[in-house]
């Protein structure tokens, strides 16, 4: 478990399963890939490559994505991989949050409020 009870994907096999079996949604700076997992929870994976920036920048982006995921009310039963692109390094928290929420809505992974 990660921050605030966030379940994370850790093994390469879990990431590749989402890549093979899942669906994809894309926006400027972020890509979301998700696959059903037949569990009572949502598990998350975060990919921030070296193209995005230094280790400090990549870790900051990862922390921002995790915080946003904890704030959003997502539906259980999915493995989700979020892939950050270099454009995210120049965005502030609110810009990243609005793009991620848009992606989650397009993918049908959030409850309508």
Description:
- Strand 4, helix 2 (55-71) and strand 5 (78-84) form a beta-alpha-beta unit.
- The chain is 37% helix and 24% strand.
- The protein starts with 6 loop residues before the first strand and ends in a 6-residue tail after the last helix.
- With 113 residues, the chain is of the alpha/beta class.
- Strands 1-4-5-3-2 form a 5-stranded mixed β-sheet, sandwiched between helices.
List keywords for this structure.
113 residues; alpha/beta; Ribosomal Protein S5, domain 2; globular
Number of E-type strands: 5
Overall average pLDDT: 91
Number of domains: 1
Give start-end ranges of low-pLDDT stretches.
none
- Proportion of strand residues: 15-25%
Could you state the oligomeric state of the chains shown? single chain
Question: What can be said about this structure in brief?
Answer:
By secondary structure, the chain is of the alpha/beta class.
Topology:
Elements: E1 7-8, H1 12-21, E2 23-27, E3 30-36, E4 43-48, H2 55-71, E5 78-84, H3 93-107
Parallel strand pairs: 1-4, 4-5
Antiparallel strand pairs: 2-3, 3-5
């Amino acid at each position: 478990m990660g921050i605030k009870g966030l379940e994370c994907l850790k093994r390469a096999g879990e990431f590749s399963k989402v890549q093979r079996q899942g669906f994809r949604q894309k926006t400027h700076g972020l890509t979301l890939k998700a696959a059903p997992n037949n569990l009572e929870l949502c598990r998350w994976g975060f990919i921030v490559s070296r193209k995005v920036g230094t280790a400090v920048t990549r870790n900051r982006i990862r922390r921002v994505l995790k915080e946003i995921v904890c704030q959003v009310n997502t539906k259980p039963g999915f493995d989700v991989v979020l892939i950050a692109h270099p454009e995210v390094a120049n965005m502030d928290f609110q810009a990243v949050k609005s793009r991620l929420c848009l992606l989650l809505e397009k993918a049908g992974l959030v409850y309508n409020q």
